[in-house]
Amino acid sequence: MLALQASRHAQGLTKRPAANACIVLLTFSVTLLFGRCDADAATGASASEEAPHRRFEYKYSFKGPHLSQPDGSIPFWVHTGNAIPSADQVRITPSLRSQRGSVWTKNTVGFEHWEAEVTFRVSGRGRMGADGLAVWFTASQGLDGPVYGAADKWNGVGVFFDSFDNDGKKNNPAIIVVGNNGNLVYDHQNDGTTQALGTCLRDFRNKPYPVRAKITYYKKTLTVMINNGFTPDKDDYEFCTKVDNMIIPKEGFFGISAATGGLADDHDVLSFLLFRLTEPGQQPPPPEAEIPREEKDKYQEEFENFQQELDKKKEEFQKEHPDVQGEPIEDLFESVNDREIRQVFEGQNRIHLEIKQLHRQLAMILDEQRRYVSVITDEVAKKGTHAESGQVGHMTSPGSGYRVTSSQHQGSAVGMGTYETVQHFNDIKEHLHLVKRDVEHLVQRSNPAEKVMKCPELPPMPSCLSTVHFAVFVVVQSVLFFCYIMYKSQQEAAAKKFF
Ligand SMILES: [Ca+2]
Ligand SMILES: [Ca+2]
After folding, report:
1. Of the ligands numbered here, which is closest to the C-alpha atom of 163?
2. Of 34, 249, 365, 488, which has the fewest Cβ atoms less than 10 A away?
3. How many whole angstroms separate alpha carbon 228 and alpha carbon 208?
4. pLDDT the model gives residue 454
5. Computed over its alpha carbons, how large is the radius of gyration of the chain?
6. CB-CB contact of 448 with 391 (8 Å)
7. From the CA of 259, which ligand is nearest?
8. Ligand 1 centroid vs 226 CA: distance in angstroms?
9. For residue range 410-435, what is the model confidence (pLDDT) as tens digits?
10. Distance from the CA of 360 to the center of ligand 2, in angstroms?
11. What is the CA(156)–ligand 2 centre distance, in A?
């Protein structure tokens, strides 16, 4: 507690020369009492006010899916030690022994109020892991050191996700907030408990979803909120700890570091998003105003150099390839997007052509079908007139008419535009020809004038078998059959007696 008091006091004196009444009180009062007095004032003030304006600051952030560049660097960030940036995350340390890694913003941040959202995973096979992950806001980049892979004696604040229980009090994994004015040496043996400004117990290892930490610095109050990674809900934050009257450097670097020891975890950071907070009623400064003049000139110069180089290269290329001089050079190359769009367009064009062709074929087949149908109906009509002149023809014509209609139905059912339909109609045509011939034949054979209602004559009965003969034969056969049945049943009855 003494160390904490000392640290606070030191911060207050170094960072705020015009110390306010509360800080003067600090030297005389107990830390707890002081904390309470200030906390009450802060909560009372913030409760009555509306939420601050929030603006995303891409120059101090990173996230997937294009987190790293092809050369392995992170735009606007530096990475050191064993950190491995990839497209969708930064592995601050792999799960190997004694690893240290960190990422830091390239430029300092000078926002009065801010909010940082860190999404990370700490995962390892063991029941315990080590050492942990730290989120920093410090006056200088702590590129390497013993405090979770970053430098000790930092000037600023560190939020530590301490996995390993060094003091054996069974109070890890835990989250602690430690402030430093640049003189304090971190108390690793006690898991920093002697220096903690705020702490909460949270198991952040091996969670189904990434763990999220929201660190807000607003009106000198540092709040840590945790999303424990049990749900995919991004806004499911729980309060962890709050430090009032937190004094941090006016300008500083944001950083994330991690380290492993004898035990090792993968420490993966999926995103770091920084937001600038502006008090309600105040206008946030325009983004352009934030770029320093010299930086702007530098970028402008760089751009001009690049443009000149490009022009030079263009000229060189045209000298080397005089045959393509007339064409614009840009058209010779095709970006991945252009190619994809072109391929999609070509594919659709092909499909369109195929459909068109199919449509044409279908129309042709339909035409053909229509022609066949008309031919058949003509035939039927013709045959009808033929049949009307004769009675036998009159009997057959409804049958053939039915056939035509049924075949029409079949034709449409089989499916339009198939070759089989055409074949089918050919068959029907042939068949109808046969029917027609039969009808004509019948018409020729019959004499329509005389045999109007007469039935065809029965063929004469054969003279060898008369009705009487047949009756006698049937009676004799029946008698013989009955005799046989009787004889058979008697024999079976006799056979049964032996058993
Ligand atoms: Ca520890
Ligand atoms: Ca501990």
Report:
1. 1
2. 488
3. 9
4. 62
5. 50
6. yes
7. 1
8. 19
9. 444 444 445 677 788 888 888 888 88
10. 81
11. 23
CA of 234 to the centre of ligand 2 (A): 29
Kind and range of the H or E run holding 379: helix 336-388
Q: Which ligand is nearest to the CA of 128?
A: 1
Give residue 332's pLDDT: 56
Locate the DSSP E strands across 163-262: 174-181, 196-201, 211-218, 221-227, 238-243, 253-259
Question: Which residues have CB atoms below 5 A from the ion given as ligand 1?
Answer: 162, 164, 166, 191
In 3D space, the residue among 269, 264, 261 whose CA is nearest the CA of residue 134 turns out to be 269
Q: Provide the pLDDT for residue 468.
A: 86
Expressed in angstroms and rounded, the spacing between residue 191 Cα and the centre of ligand 2 is: 5
Centre of ligand 1 from the C-alpha of residue 259, in Å: 11
323-349 in b/e burial notation, b at 16+ Cβ within 10 A?
A: eeeeeeeeeeeeeeeeeeeeeeeeeee
H helices present in 389-466, as ranges: 391-414, 419-445
158 pLDDT tier (thresholds 50, 70, 90): very high
How many residues in the chain? Answer: 499
CA–centroid distance, residue 148 to ligand 1 (Å): 9
Please report which ligand is nearest the Cα atom of 193: 2
Q: What would the pLDDT profile of 438-475 be if each residue is shown by its tens digit?
A: 888 887 776 555 445 666 677 666 666 678 888 998 99
Tokens of 103: 């990422």
Q: What's residue 88's pLDDT?
A: 93
- Nearest CA among 125, 118, 130, 140 for reference residue 93: 130
If you measure from the C-alpha of residue 126 to the centroid of ligand 2, how many angstroms do you get, rounded to a whole number? 17
Question: Which ligand neighbours the alpha carbon of 199 most closely?
Answer: 2
Which of 188, 184, 141 minimizes the C-alpha distance to 160? Answer: 188
- 139 Cβ contact list (under 8 Å, min separation 6): 154, 155, 156, 182, 249, 251, 252, 253
Q: What is the pLDDT of residue 289?
A: 60
At 96-120, the pLDDT tens digits run: 999 999 999 999 999 999 999 999 9
The pLDDT assigned to 446 comes to 63
Expressed in angstroms and rounded, the spacing between residue 202 Cα and the centre of ligand 2 is 12
pTM, entire model: 0.52
